[in-house]
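Protein 1 of 2
SEQ + STRUCT:
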Amino acid sequence: MRRAWLAAIAWACASWGGVPPADPNPTGASPAHAVLKGKTVVNIPGCPANPYNLLGTVLQYATYGTLPALDEEGRPKFAYGRTIHEHCPRRAHFDAGRFAEKFGDEGHRLGYCLYKLGCKGPATHANCSVLHFCEVVDAWPIGLGHPCFGCTEQKIGFRMPMHQTVEIYRPTPPDTYAPVNARQGTISPVATAIGGAIVGALAGGGYVASKKLSKAPDEPETPSKTGV
């Protein structure tokens, strides 16, 4: 019988303790991995956690006797290796600088980015944006029009105000707050001249090549003045 070195899988609130251990934590509540010290504990946080994340972990252990690669928080990397923000369906609006300013405004109704309303997606590692709960389309906060509140992060969910914005550690171009109508650059005269010369050279080469290809196979080449 395979030796069981998987001590426990911390499901949902057991990963971080949920609401009770939030500051000032008067009851001294602790998450499962803090109680089971010295044991191998896999954290699968979520509120609730996606059952497929649990299923993937359990099936790998039952089939191969191994655990998936874990991050520094003890979470399976296949499910928590990237932030929600990276694959959020509203990401294009973020990059374009289109944000809902308040619930119910035009931007909110048009599906704009919810970052300014307190979305924790840029700092929350989870696969909610690519694997909706029980495969029900849009069955997750952002899909329902509400910001992510970071339930998979020990220092965010139940510890930060729900509508407070988080710092973005990995913004990508064009910028964190790219304007919708960004000022466009101009092409310098030097670049125009160089581009024109290149286009002219290509056109000339193409013309010469076309003349050679249009000649009949048995048509002799016209000798040059040098006799070569």
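Protein 2 of 2
SEQ + STRUCT:
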Amino acid sequence: MMAFFAYLLRCADASYYAGHTDDLALRVAQHQAGECGGYTATRLPVALVWSQEFATREEALAAERQIKGWRRAKKEALIAGNWKRIQQLSWGTRNPLPEHLK
């Protein structure tokens, strides 16, 4: 059974890059060597700071797209594994944060 991964890289300029792949070690090595071009190639070196395995490419791609839409603070909460903070950052001004998440 093939596994797929969503991942987050920290670039040399302290920005984050989200992606997905079916070979995490190879893809990270490609990013580190500048072989992927684009965003990460101009911000070397890069370091893997988070990854999660998924059963399908569609799930990994959905996670990548979701993370790409997140603000920096939420990405950093993900890296830290701080699920409560992720929940807190998910609540906007239209929906006040429930007491149990404060």
